[in-house]
Amino acid sequence: MTAHAHDLRTPLPDFDAGLNSSTAWKKHLSISDAPQPPSPVSEEKPLFARAVRDVLGNEDNRELGLKAGETIEILNPRIGDEWALAKKPDGDMGLIPHGCYVTIHDFTGTSPSPTSPTFPPSGSIDGPIRMQSTGESIITSSLYTLRQSVLGGKSLNRFSHFVVTGAEEWIINGYDPPVATSRSHERFRTDVTVDETDEEVGRHYVEANMSWREKTPAFNVLVHSPEKHSSVTGAYTLYSVTSIFPPSSPEMEPTRITVHRRFSHFNFLHTALSRSLPGIVLPPLPAKQYAGRFQGEFVEARRGDLEKWLQRIVRHPVVRYTEVVVFFLGCESDLEWKRLLPTYLSTLPAGPAFYASVFHPDFNLDVEDCSATIGRFEHHVRVFDERIGTLRGVMGGFREARNGFLGVVSEGPKHDHEHETEEKEKEKYLNDEGVWCWRDGCEDCLHTTKAVQKMAECMQGVANLHEDSAKRTTLAIHDMVKDMSHPSMMYGPLIDTHKQALARYRDSESIEARAEDLTRVATEYLDEEIALYEQVLARLRAARAGFEQKDAAGRGVSPVLPTPVPQPTAHVYDPAPVRPVSTAVNMLIDGIGASGDKTGLKFWS
Known about the structure:
Protein name: Sorting nexin lst-4
InterPro entries: AH/BAR_dom_sf, PX_dom, PX_dom_sf, SH3-like_dom_sf, SH3_domain
Largest sheet: 5 strands, antiparallel
GO molecular function: phosphatidylinositol binding
Number of strands: 10
Domain PX: 217-335
Oligomer: single chain
Domain SH3: 44-106
């Protein structure tokens, strides 16, 4: 289940099997369900060039570093006004400025010499160039938004989750692991390791209580410090992702690893997990945003959504030790990230390989218990979905009530002319000392007025507490409840997979019984036929042996007389009309003295 076993240049398939964002993976799934913009790679004859000066590329902006005299291939000569997309012979791609290279045809006048490095056609091995970019076209974003709004994120795939995830193929054909191929030594800086062999890491075990076995201890993940960055391909937001691992002893400090990721990297992680873990329900990734995505409120909301999504990912006992999660959380080098990312992008869906890697060797599953467990879980998910919807409505109403209370206490006049009118009205019921009374010097009204003002200030403080609670505690709980909403949609495909697998198991019992009956009938028939043909073979061999024994002993002492061959019964012949009795008697009289065979023929003719 290692992604390194695939070649870095394995092209991504073009067919989308219609995988939902939270389910997994299926063959021919691109990195995004949204239509991809046209590839900038030209299908014409490759354009080669040679660098005329050294270029120190900025890796953060995807710029390609060059040395004077180095041969490159120009994939797209115009990226913006001052840049071009180029590729080195070793496969590295990036942006280079205009003026740092000249095409080979400009100073040779002929095609590249045989000694020059030759490049295969740009579209032959690499397929479309899939560079991480946030500058999607308006058409692409519109189609993606339309699909999410109209279809609700669902797929039009006519095949069930049981088929597309490889569960059916695993039940019917099993799984033959591919032959292990040697690969070069690859490593990247990380402290996140699993102290097991690659084969053991790829195995997932189920405990006796129908839960996944935890191989690695739980840890926490924080997404913080969003920063806006700009490049020639557009602006994007970069988030800091910090993994906090608990210490082995209380005296030690927790281990922290911080990497920097953008939203497209989270999208890559979700897609890679969907491909490698088709039998596990993954939380949906926060939706994309194209308008106002750099506003402070949206960036903070996006940061919180990504943090909660990533925390749910690492809480799963199987997902958190997968290779792609370790790569996402632990790869601190940008060079290693860019070098290894195509390997994970080109990884095909696991299919039946995932189900072949799930083991429960310590116990056997009872079909009735499995059926009851599926029914209880489906009922739980359905009831949970209904109760969560009700709870969300209550929490939303509670927050609105708190905000309404704050508005009642703190809301004042909205316009200047209303303020002037209110001042005139105050003059009618307030004295010169500002006391709520019609006469001056009233101590009782002064005390009452002060008490009312103090009560108003107290209510204002209570309203502020309600506002703070609505913004912090209640909103956080509301968002948490929102993340858990609609579990029936998330777990529906998984429940369907288990139901169909259980139905296949029950059908297999009746099919096995019918197969046993068919085997018994066929065996008895073949045994009878074998016995018959053995008798025929014995007689044929005896007849043939008579031709080989030429001595007198083999011929015997009895005279050579023909053995009469018995005639078949009458029903063997074709039916014919029976002659009258008188005609038959006359034929018998006329045939006296003739051979019996001739008479018999006349009688039946």
